[in-house]
């Protein structure tokens, strides 16, 4: 674990490589989404199909940006915890033993 940042930099650590196999409810809902998207893509035509695919693509962009925001905020939260634990010395009370 000593080369964590280097491994992360070279792409050997992928925090997004995760599976839903342990969460059956999410896995089922992902299957519902996939089957319905496939059904609607085949069933619709013309302007309706274009509108649906625009919706699917827009949702993908919004979802991706939201995931990116959560990822960044998670790193910031972790960095703030680390800073507070190892660097910050502010506390609500003074240490009477050091005086």
Q: What would a concise description of this structure say?
A:
The chain has 99 residues and is mainly alpha-helical. The protein contains three helices and no strands.
Attribute tags:
0% strand, elongated, 99 residues, mainly alpha, 3 helices
List the helices and strands and how they pair.
Blueprint: H1 4-9, H2 24-43, H3 46-86
Please provide the ordered H/E string of secondary-structure elements: HHH
Backbone structural class: mainly alpha
Poorly predicted spans: none
Helix percent band? 55-70%
Radius of gyration: 23 Å
Structural shape: elongated
What's the β-strand tally? 0
* Through-space gap between termini: 39 Å
Into which percentage range does the β-strand content fall? under 5%
* Count of discrete alpha- or pi-helical segments spanning 4 or more residues: 3
Commentary on this structure:
By secondary structure, the protein is mainly alpha-helical. The chain contains three helices and no strands. The longest helix is centred in the middle third of the chain and has 41 residues, at 46-86. The two termini are 39 Å apart. The model has no long low-confidence stretch (mean pLDDT 86).
């Amino acid at each position: 674990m000593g080369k964590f940042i280097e491994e992360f930099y070279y792409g050997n650590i992928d925090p997004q490589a995760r599976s839903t196999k342990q969460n059956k409810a999410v896995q089922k809902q992902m299957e519902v989404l996939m089957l319905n998207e496939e059904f609607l893509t085949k069933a619709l035509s013309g302007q309706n199909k274009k509108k649906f695919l625009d919706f699917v693509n827009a949702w993908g962009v919004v979802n991706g940006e939201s995931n990116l925001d959560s990822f960044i905020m998670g790193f910031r939260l972790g960095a703030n915890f680390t800073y507070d634990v190892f660097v910050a010395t502010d506390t609500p009370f003074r240490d009477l033993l050091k005086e």
